[in-house]
Amino acid sequence: MAGRQVRVNGTRIFVDDRGDPDAPALLFIHGGPGQGCYDFMRSQGDGLAARLRVIGVDQRGTLRSDPLPAAPPLTADLLVSDFEAIRSRLRIESWAVLGHSAGAGYALRYVTSRPGAIRSVIFDCPCWDADMSDRYRLPVVARLLEEMGQLADAERCRELAAKAGRLSFSDGTRQAMQVLGSRYMEHFFHDPAGAAGLSQLLEDSGFSQEAWQRGNSHWPLLAAMYEPVLGLLPRVRRPALLLRGQDDLVAAPGMIEAFAQSVPAGQTHTFPASGHFAYLEEPAAYCEAVTQFVLAHSA
């Protein structure tokens, strides 16, 4: 398996670096928070590396990186600082950045705070406002719970979706939706069977349970996801592409509209047979869309 640990900012971070070192570079920023880059690089790494230099990172404290240090406190800005330090260590002058889900929030912070380091940016099923995402997801989860006969749980989801004022992490929306149990991941896919496929992919990785559980150290970042970053969109000054699955429930319509209005030169690409994980459900089309965009803006 490709990859090595790189020491930056007081910790060792796992970096999976593939492709021709002289090809246009692309950084993949995973979401979760705390998911790690394994599933993305396992499904997309070699395909993207055919024409790009693709760099996947297990963010500090996750999976193959060292356990999260006690200090400094974990923030999205600290993760962006890590990405910059990795770019410097790899001697990459500038690169394209692809952020998935929560990672699209980190990518937005990155491209607006350090535009000189970035040639282009791709936002994949972004979560730029967890309140907006939850209100879009909760009614769908409620219908699934009704089908399962869990009427009280379904009603709780509908109550949360209709709450006056903004939702916050303390409202427990994640826990309300996770009562789906083994079916929880299904609503992230166009084909519900994709959830089992992802589970098998992770199970076959051979990583220890302790390594996977390191990602739990990023859960405190969930609270910050309820602080919207949509206001940063007008500051995007690099070529931008928004990817979404037709059935994705995280990138709510309001986010897609905000991107279109705030980034007039931005492009949007929809994968018709995907949910939140187009890189798993339509891997060939996904690889081609990403590769073509990065190459088009690599000069």
Compact overview of the structure:
The protein has helices spanning 38-49, 76-89, 102-113, 130-147, 151-161, 173-178, 193-203, 209-213, 221-224, 253-262, 278-281, 283-296; strands at residues 4-8, 11-18, 25-29, 53-58, 95-100, 118-124, 240-245, 267-271.
Give structural notes:
The chain is α/β, with parallel strands linked by helices and 299 residues long. The protein has two domains: 4-129 and 219-296, Rossmann fold, CATH 3.40.50.1820; 132-188, no CATH class. Helices cover 40% and strands 16% of the residues. It is built from twelve helices and eight strands. The protein has helices at 38-49, 76-89, 102-113, 130-147, 151-161, 173-178, 193-203, 209-213, 221-224, 253-262, 278-281, 283-296, and strands at 4-8, 11-18, 25-29, 53-58, 95-100, 118-124, 240-245, 267-271. Strands 1-2-4-3-5-6-7-8 form an eight-stranded mixed beta sheet, with helices on both faces. Helix 10 links the parallel strand 7 and strand 8 (267-271). Helix 1 crosses helix 12 (283-296). The chain starts with a strand and ends with a helix. The mean pLDDT is 96.
Question: How many beta-strand segments?
Answer: 8
Overall CATH class of the largest domain: Alpha Beta
Computed Rg: 18 Å
Domains counted in the coordinates: how many? 2
Relative strand content: 15-25%
Largest sheet: 8 strands, mixed
CATH architecture of the largest domain: 3-Layer(aba) Sandwich
Uncertain segments are none
The name of the CATH topology of the largest domain is Rossmann fold
Mass-distribution shape: globular
Instruction: Specify the structural class.
Output: alpha/beta
Q: For the terminal residues, how far apart are their CA atoms?
A: 31 Å
Proportion in helices: 40-55%
According to CATH, the homologous superfamily of the largest domain is Alpha/Beta hydrolase fold, catalytic domain
Q: What's the rounded overall pLDDT mean?
A: 96
Spatially, the strands of the biggest sheet line up as: 1-2-4-3-5-6-7-8
Number of helices: 12
Kindly report the oligomeric state of this protein: single chain
